[in-house]
UniProtKB/TrEMBL annotation:
Top-level lineage group: Bacteria
Organism classification: Bacteria, Bacillati, Bacillota, Clostridia, Eubacteriales
Keywords: DNA integration, DNA recombination, DNA-binding
Its biological purpose: Site-specific tyrosine recombinase, which acts by catalyzing the cutting and rejoining of the recombining DNA molecules.
Name listed for the protein in its UniProt record: Recombinase
InterPro entries assigned to the protein according to its UniProt record, in alphabetical order: CB, DNA_brk_join_enz, Integrase-like_cat_sf, Integrase_catalytic, Integrase_recombinase_N, Integrase_SAM-like_N, Tyrosine_recombinase_XerCD
Claim: rRNA-binding is one of the keywords in the record: no
Similarity comment: family membership: Belongs to the 'phage' integrase family.
SUPFAM superfamilies according to UniProt: DNA breaking-rejoining enzymes
Residue span(s) of domain Core-binding (CB): 67-157
Length: 396
């Protein structure tokens, strides 16, 4: 409820708008001054009317053009981000506040210019921007920062707080993305051979990743009902994710096209059958302590495996066997590269990876596609040289 205080010949009207990310109460205020000649009764009636109008405007979050970026961004989190974004995206946005608010949070929404946002973005690509490594932030992280600011402004435009989005005029630094690190065929063969001496759980996990290109969350979200042993196919229908606030939880796939079905070699399916039998035995040993989640990859008691477990296991495995450690996502890149090098068309590759559009696949793997196309041209040239330049018997 608005509070009214008389100060000299004017009135101060204050409204509480909740709390910011640091727990500090956010107060909006306005000053109203009676016109000359108004009676006491008229003043009392009008100041109360002004207070009601101001409070209604504050409750909607559109109280004035003078609202600061941090205040409006917190309203955006509550009104838009929380009900509409995926939990992982929402959590990432929350983490970005620590860098964005000190730079822009204190500034009025209607006063922030493209040059100020450009200066902020440019600062992220300078040495020292990453406090942990002392290097510039990764191009992807810089994009996330700009996307957060842009999303807040886009919402502000819709809500009538500002007339345009200054982020539309901002240019991202050139994306000097390092070439994706992918295991060579020889390294993969060594990896698979060494894997034969490891627990069946991890043998199946990494064989499946190599033969499917599934994302980590998709792998951990697999349930036995998704495995069709009769037709040797496995379907992706959900993901298993983690945030600090929610812990491990089940979510929908990244996009609708991420829900897909792939066929697997018989050897992989036989390995999965063996693993299913092993898990069933573990459930019997645990008795009442076993939690039936139907997940393929679980803790000792049947609860879903933590998202970091395969990553840390792989790191220790690579270190033990003197193999390079490229992370879990490298197996997805490996899968894509194997398909491209075998001449599989881009539409099929995109579908197998579960990308929302073919252009996404083309953008990520453009270098691989260019190399594959070059090989095609070389093959055609070689064939033409062989047939066209072959000398006739007796010719010069």
């Amino acid at each position: 409820m608005a509070t009214i205080k008389k100060r000299g010949d004017s009135y101060s009207i204050r409204v509480s708008c909740g709390y910011n990310s640091k727990g500090k109460q956010m107060i909006q205020s306005m000053t109203w001054k009676p016109e000359d000649g108004m009676t006491t009764k008229q003043i009392e009636k009008e100041v109360n009317r002004q207070a009601v109008m101001f409070e209604e405007a504050c409750n909607k979050g559109y109280q004035s053009k003078a609202i600061k970026f941090e205040v409006f961004a917190e309203q955006w989190f509550e009104e838009y981000a929380k009900p509409n974004l995926r939990n992982t995206t929402y959590e990432r946005m929350l983490q970005l506040r620590g860098r964005i608010y000190p730079a822009l949070g204190h500034m009025r929404m209607d006063k922030i210019t493209p040059r100020q946002i450009q200066a902020f973005v440019n600062s992220l690509s300078r040495e020292g921007a990453n406090e942990r490594t002392g290097k510039p932030l990764a191009p992807k992280t810089i994009r996330h920062n700009l996307s957060f600011v842009s999303d807040v402004f886009s919402y502000a435009v819709k809500m009538g707080v500002v007339t345009d989005n200054p982020c539309s005029k901002v240019t991202l630094p050139k994306n000097y993305q390092a070439e994706k690190k992918i295991y060579t065929p020889e390294q993969v063969q060594k990896f698979l051979t060494l894997l034969n001496n490891e627990p069946l759980k991890y043998r199946t996990f990494f064989n499946l990743m190599i033969f499917s290109g599934f994302r980590r969350g998709e792998m951990l979200g697999l349930e036995w009902k998704d495995v069709d042993f009769e037709n040797n196919i496995i379907s992706v229908r959900r993901t298993s994710n983690y945030t600090c606030k929610k812990g491990t939880y089940t979510d929908t796939t990244k996009t609708k096209k991420s829900q897909r079905t792939l066929k697997f070699p018989q050897e992989i399916m036989d390995m999965l059958r063996e693993y299913k039998d092993e898990q069933d035995m573990q459930a019997l040993k645990c008795g009442d302590k076993w939690v039936d989640t139907d997940r393929l990859y679980t803790k000792w008691n049947g609860l879903p495996m933590q998202n970091g477990t395969p990553y840390f296991w792989l790191g220790e495995f690579c270190e033990k066997h003197d193999l390079p450690f490229y992370g879990l996502h490298s197996f997805r890149h490996l899968f894509a590269s194997l398909l491209v090098n075998q001449g599989v068309d881009i539409v099929t590759v995109s579908g197998a990876l579960g990308h929302s559009t073919v252009s996404t696949t083309s953008n990520i793997y453009c270098h691989m596609l260019e190399e594959a196309q070059a090989k095609v041209s070389e093959a055609v040239s070689a064939a033409l040289d062989f047939s066209g330049n072959k000398k006739e018997p007796g010719g010069e």
